[in-house]
Amino acid sequence: MKKVTIYDVAREAGVSLATVSRVINGSSVVREKTKQKVLKVINELDFKPNQVARGLATSKTTTIAIIFPQSLFAHVKNMIGGIGDAGRHLDYNITIYTTDDIGDDDTVGHVLEKVVKARADGVILFNNDQINQEIELVKKYKIPAVVIGTCVSDDLIGSIYIDAQKVAFEIVEKYLKEEKNDIVFISPKQNLVKTEDLISGIKMAYDNYHLPFDENQQVIHTSTHYEKCYPQFCEYFKNHKHDVVFASYDKEGVAVINAAQDNHIAIPDDMEVISMMDTSYALMSRPTLTSVHLPIYDMGALAVRLLTKILNDEDIDTKEVCVNTLIMKRDSTKQ
Question: Could you list the residue range(s) of the whole structural domain that residue 66 is in?
Answer without folding.
Answer: 62-161+296-321
